[in-house]
């Protein structure tokens, strides 16, 4: 018997490699692939002055550093949307 975690893959967000958006993960919030960390959480940590090492330490090494450029790009896209 194969566990759901072995077969389920969250849906990619647009063409991003690291960013996913799936209703089965964090209620559909933008998240970092392979983690339960939301894009908003990482941005909040950064806005509070945390660096990558501090973010990684705070979440038990779960934040993949390679995801940071995509986190920032998504933030830029969303900030550019007219309210």
UniProtKB/TrEMBL annotation:
Signal peptide: none annotated. This is DUF433 domain-containing protein.
């Amino acid at each position: 018997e194969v566990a759901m975690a072995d077969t389920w893959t969250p849906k990619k967000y647009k063409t991003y490699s690291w960013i996913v958006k799936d209703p089965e993960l964090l209620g559909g919030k933008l998240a970092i692939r392979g983690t339960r960390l939301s894009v908003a959480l990482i941005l909040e940590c950064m806005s509070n002055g945390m660096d990558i090492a501090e973010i990684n330490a705070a979440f038990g090494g779960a934040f993949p550093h390679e995801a940071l450029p995509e986190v920032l790009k998504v933030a830029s896209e969303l900030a550019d949307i007219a309210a």
